[in-house]
Amino acid sequence: MKVLFVEDDHSIAMGLEYSLRQEGYEVRTCHTVAEAETALSEELFDLCLLDVTLPDGNGYEICQKAKRREDVAVIFLTACDDEGNVVMGLDMGADDYITKPFRIRELLSRMKSVLRRYRKTDGAEQLFRLRDITVYPLQAKVYKGEEELNLTAMEYRLLLTLVQAEGRILSRNQLLESLWDIGGDYVNDNTLTVYIKRLREKLGGENGEADLIKTVRGMGYRLGE
Q1: In sequence order, which residues have a C-beta less than 8 Å from that of residue 13 and are 6 or more positions away?
Q2: Taking the mean position of all CA atoms in its chain, how far away is CA 175?
Q3: What residues pair up with 4 in beta bridges, in sequence order?
Q4: Which of 36, 93, 155, 195 could be a cystine partner for 30, CB 3.0 to 4.6 Å?
Q5: Residue 111 pLDDT > 60, yes or no?
Q6: Cα separation of 189 and 191, whole Å?
Q7: Which of 66, 73, 71 lies closest to 42, judged by CA?
Q8: What does pTM read for this prediction?
């Protein structure tokens, strides 16, 4: 689960980020609205933990931007327990509101509760994410950040095969089998090389270690960092 955590107090941020990572969450920590907006433009998150008062604005701005992009879970963390602030956050679509100071176990419990509700809503589709790439299998769509990638049917099938392998190495023969056209059109070894090259370029370019599609000499290919 990927969490966007926005907190301007660096000591609080460091401690909570450590606790969340210990629980298995992947955390991107930001300290300002500007940093959070950059993060939202680069990645998709399962949950946003937002401080309300920030040096260059407030958490409500981040909540609005996140909700416009996708139906993401939002929990506000704040020292302000004024009823008006609570109502404002909930009206913007926030799922919960926790007043500082709080116990980490209470926060983790509320996070799990909120995420369970979201899984019931969209749990029919399992999303695949790697870096800034997100694959929506049921929709047959792939996004790099906020931009939808224009993949051919073969490029998409190749990517989905690599993604579903979960980092395992796939031989060229295995990839060729996955690309065998339903209509019976033959996909040869040279064509596979072309598809891999084009897909690499669309995912981020032919940049050696920066490529998401790794070549494993003498064995095949895998998808990974």
Answers
A1: 5, 7, 29, 31
A2: 26
A3: 28, 48
A4: 36
A5: yes
A6: 5
A7: 66
A8: 0.53
